[in-house]
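look at this stuff:

>
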Amino acid sequence: MSEVPAFVVEYDLLQKYASGPGDDRVVVITCAAFCEKYSLPLIKARLPAMDEELVERLFGENRPLSSASSRYDLAEAIGLITAEFRKELKIFIKIRNQFAHHVDIENADDTRISGLTNSLSLSLGNDPKLQEEYKSWPQSGRLHWHSLFFAGRFLDQLNFEHSRGRID
């Protein structure tokens, strides 16, 4: 029996945080951190000629691709994510930054958060029933839904690359 990949264990913890009435700040920051942490292994899996020296030159601290935003741009460029997903992921990162840099924001009901949350729609797909139900959800529920959506999409890609032996 093979060992469960670390990314699966971490995602399971994210689900636990986000499934209940968990703290909005914790849910957003941990889901955003999951996406950021695993963006690099996903990019490296698609660019197998990249050695550790090149990884450091490109992705190391204060390097051209050190920010999450620039990694997401590259992920789009190499076909890991769509332009629409990248656009909404960057909105999600703005939500993360609001929580991380403004300690006065208590929860998802704050207008600085709810306005951004309400601009996200990709996770609702084309299901009219879900879209209608979503309108009745509290802001916290909406935010947790989107947070898990982004982390879940990364998990899907990680599982895909793991199944091909390109990620441990």
The mean pLDDT is 91. DSSP finds eight helices and no strands in the chain. Residues 6-162 form a domain with the Four Helix Bundle (Hemerythrin (Met), subunit A) fold (CATH 1.20.120.330).
